[in-house]
Design goal:
In the central section; belongs to the CRISPR-associated helicase Cas3 family. In the N-terminal section; belongs to the CRISPR-associated nuclease Cas3-HD family. It is a single chain. By secondary structure, the chain is α/β, with parallel strands linked by helices. The protein folds into 4 domains: 211 residues, Hypothetical protein af1432 (Orthogonal Bundle); 224 residues, Rossmann fold (3-Layer(aba) Sandwich), CATH 3.40.50.300; 184 residues, Rossmann fold; 95 residues, no CATH class. The chain contains 31 helices and 24 strands. Helix 4 packs antiparallel against helix 5 and helix 18 packs parallel to helix 27. The N and C termini lie far apart (76 Å).
Length: 818
């Protein structure tokens, strides 16, 4: 059988088969394009390209051909696993790529493992026998032909680099294979041209494919990323001048909310790219809401980073619901402004490959966990400046361990990173610096711009003109209600941040009973209603709001960082210091638009609903005042926050912020009644750290040695209260339809989703998922979603089942909430 007679994939109906050998050259040509901008040796670049070409050597196999033509299962290894068997069989012909045989074998597993996980190591002899007698000589001929196309190929790195390379290489090959397998870019070609002639054709197609998919790299601009008519803030000015080291760099931007940290990060990232430390950006945010807000904020600026328009993508599970993102999606790259190709927008993993990506930190953390296609995420991020925002929100022991591991992984492939925060504790800062391999700064100065182990700029003048925020304790709920009622009557924009959703619902009902115009915002709304309430909150309390709206918003933690809101009066349930500082950042926020003289109150005051920290009789100290909100955070941290905050009497940002944060997290002698809470928190932290260390990939092991990757494996990016996802539906003549739509699509389903604690839902008689009306809808969903999502019809009066109802203005109401 001739080499070009082995098929690469099923032929289109009435069409021709594309030879497997041509497909291998297609993928190599794509890899060659993707590698074009990397500053690496000619020999290593040729090795990567050759590796990409060899990825499907196992398709030269009778078992693969019979699977395509006759539907027979491949009983002795799938084609990508047979690739490893052939490479090991032909090892002597590949001796020139690396001297050490064990190194070569680790690389063979990486080449074959481009389908999301390492190949299963079975009997290679059995695989080769199943491939058939005709396959082995043709596979060897293909290998020799590919080597002849890139004869200089050599893995010119020391042996201790193998583990890192074997985690990165399958990602490169997977991306090249996805493009090289796309018939829109590489339509089938009948057998005919020889290897060299076909490569010339494939190179032209590959260049067009990379460009049309949005993966080509525009040149970095040397023009300022911030428009010249903007007045740069102190942190942004510091980003222009701080010295950068040779090699990978870790920068930390620590400044108060509203100080322009995002623009400072863009200035610094542009300088890093010009210095060769990356070719793109990925913004990693703690939540989808904060990612959406960042996407909206930076979409107009990132185009200024490059000489020509970059590709720009939003990377999280509900990106398709972002109106701004949908406006950018086009079939091919726009030459005039940032855009996202349909190929990039089709998959969260693809979205990471855009020149500039914005998404949840989870998408980045998955590159450090043994989950399918983790190596593709790692490859995508390795060429980018990783910008992690709101780092303080990733401070639980599990996520800290993951984030540190991600920084190690990113650095070992030459990646640089920027961390942004308003309230990061010093011990967290030190851990992340050490994870990146740099000495942490010793200075306690705040604000500060630090390049870890290299330099620091402090003594930055404050941005805000509101002055210190006075802190007043409110001893109980009714005092908060009375204060907010009076504030609304005086025309104020007022906020009460509650720690628990049930408490927020209770508070808004109590305010409305007093005749107060009060809105509600929390995470237990169906997404369609949450988006509506967010827009209402932005219109009423946002940057461009009326000066005296005379309204109250009751909200949970969702207002801490994702929405740009400005309040005259603020009440907050007691919470740890970092959360309280974030909340206070929404108080008297836009002083340029609403100076002190125009506000309905004399000064900014944070009123905190809290018992007296000096009078702790038992563990119910906080429960008597905050109800369910007493259990949202660890009791010892809340007591320390109360002690530090009420002793200080104010939040003095930026000068006193560092001391307040540190005192609020570790200062003072804990009352004996609360000692067990601290012991429990520390013990849980050790357990979380241990679990993270078990889950994360072992950076010392090559790709083959990393355990995991099973389809049903569960390696979470974050811990916390287990959530259950409901899909709310209403009854119509045609059957069940989404809550706010007339037909089922991915978007309408996602807009109807709502999450709540599984422990509270599991005891309720939720609708039977095998009921005909429910089964009729779910049968069209992917199988994994059918088991993950619970479809819940909502009656006209809001009832879902006994103990559970839904109100578009109040959210999901659990009968046991009060």
């Amino acid at each position: 059988m001739a080499l070009l007679d082995w098929p690469g994939k099923s032929a289109p109906e009435g069409g021709i088969e594309h030879p497997a050998f041509y497909h291998m050259i297609d993928v190599a040509a794509v890899a060659e394009c993707l590698l074009g901008a990397l500053s690496i040796s000619v020999e290593r670049k040729a090795f990567y390209v050759l590796a990409a070409g060899l990825h499907d050597l196992g398709k030269i196999s009778a078992s693969f051909r019979d699977m395509l033509g006759e539907g027979k299962p491949q009983s002795a290894g799938r084609h990508w696993e047979v690739t490893e068997a052939f490479l090991c069989e032909f090892d002597r012909h590949l001796a020139s790529i690396a001297e050490d045989v064990s190194c070569r074998h680790d690389l063979y597993a990486a080449i074959a493992g481009h389908h999301g996980r390492p190949p299963v190591q079975e009997s290679f002899d059995r695989m080769i026998r199943a491939a058939g007698r005709e396959a082995k000589p043709d596979a060897l001929a293909a290998l020799k032909a590919l080597i002849a196309l890139w004869p200089e190929a050599c893995f010119d790195l020391p042996g201790d680099e193998v583990a890192a390379q074997t985690w990165w290489l399958p990602g490169l090959i997977a991306v090249a294979d996805w493009l090289g397998s796309n018939p829109l870019y590489f339509p089938p070609v009948a057998p005919g041209p020889g290897a060299k002639d076909y490569l010339d054709v494939a190179r032209g197609k590959a260049a067009a494919a990379v460009r049309q998919a949005g993966l080509d790299l525009p040149a970095v601009s040397q023009a300022p990323v911030i428009p010249e008519d903007w007045s740069l803030r102190p942190m942004q000015q510091a980003a222009q001048v701080i010295s950068l080291p040779d090699g990978p760099a870790l920068a930390l931007i620590e400044d108060e909310t509203g100080s322009g940290k995002t623009e400072a990060a863009l200035i610094l990232a542009q300088r890093m790219m010009l210095a060769g430390k990356g070719a793109g950006l990925f913004f990693a945010l703690p939540t989808m809401a904060t990612a959406n807000a960042m996407f909206d904020r930076c979409a107009d600026l990132v185009g200024r980073l490059y000489e020509t328009a970059p590709s720009l993508a939003l990377a999280h599970g509900r990106a398709g619901l972002s109106h701004r993102f949908r406006e950018l999606i086009r079939a091919s790259r726009s030459p005039a402004q940032p855009s996202c190709t349909e190929w990039l927008a089709d998959d969260r993993r693809c979205a990471l490959l855009a020149n500039v990506g914005v998404g949840t930190v989870d998408q980045a953390l998955l590159s450090a966990l043994p989950v399918r296609h983790a190596m593709l995420r790692h490859y995508a991020l390795s060429q980018k400046i990783l910008i992690v925002d709101e780092v303080h929100e990733m401070g639980d022991p599990y996520m800290v361990e993951e984030l540190g591991h991600l920084l190690r992984l990113h650095r070992r492939m030459g990646g640089s990173a920027i961390l942004m925060t308003a309230t990061m504790p010093m011990d967290l800062r030190a851990r992340l610096c050490r994870a990146f391999g740099c000495a942490p700064p010793e200075s306690r100065a705040y604000p500060a711009l630090t390049v870890a182990g290299h330099g620091q700029i402090t003594d930055l003048p404050p941005v805000k003109t509101r002055g210190p925020v006075r802190v007043v304790r409110l001893p109980e709920r009714d005092a908060a209600l009375g204060l907010l009622q009076q504030a609304a009557a005086e025309g104020a924009a007022a906020l009460w941040v509650r720690n628990a959703v049930d408490d927020a619902i209770d508070a808004v009902q109590a305010l409305r009973a007093r005749g107060v115009d009060a809105g509600l915002l929390h995470a237990r709304f169906a997404l369609c209603d949450r988006m509506r309430h967010e827009q209402r909150a932005l219109a009423t309390f946002g940057k461009a709001r009326e000066d005296r709206p005379g309204r109250v918003l009751v909200a949970t933690q969702v207002v801490e960082s994702s929405l740009d809101l400005d309040f005259d009066v603020m009440v907050s349930d007691l919470a740890p210091i970092p959360a309280l500082v974030q909340r206070a950042g929404r108080l008297w926020r836009h002083m340029d638009r609403r100076p002190a003289g125009g506000r309905p109150c004399a000064a900014p005051v944070l009123h905190v609903v809290s018992p007296d920290p000096g009078d702790v009789a038992d563990r119910l100290w906080l429960r008597r005042v905050l109800d369910r909100g007493a259990f949202t955070y660890s009791l010892d941290l809340q007591w320390r926050a109360a002690r530090a905050l009420f002793a200080a009497g104010q939040i003095d940002a930026p000068d006193g912020l560092r001391a307040l944060i540190e005192e609020g997290l570790s200062g003072g002698t804990l009352p004996e009644a609360l000692a067990q809470a601290e012991e429990d928190r520390i013990g849980q932290g050790f357990a979380q750290t241990d679990l993270a260390q078990q889950n994360l990939i072992d950076l010392s092991q090559p790709y083959r040695g990393i355990k995991g990757f099973a389809d049903d494996a569960d390696f979470p990016t974050r811990l916390g209260v287990e959530q259950r996802v409901l899909v709310l539906a209403r009854r119509a003549e045609a059957g069940l339809v989404p809550l706010d739509a007339d037909s089922w699509t991915v978007d309408s389903r996602q807009r109807s989703e709502i999450s709540a604690a599984a422990r509270r839902l599991n005891g309720l008689p939720l609708p039977d998922q095998s009921a005909p009306e429910i089964a009729a809808v779910k049968r069209d969903w992917p199988e994994w979603l059918q088991t993950r999502l619970t479809l819940c019809p909502v009656a006209e009066d809001g009832t879902i089942c006994e103990g559970l109802s839904y109100d578009p203005e109040a959210g999901l109401i659990l009968g046991s909430s009060r």
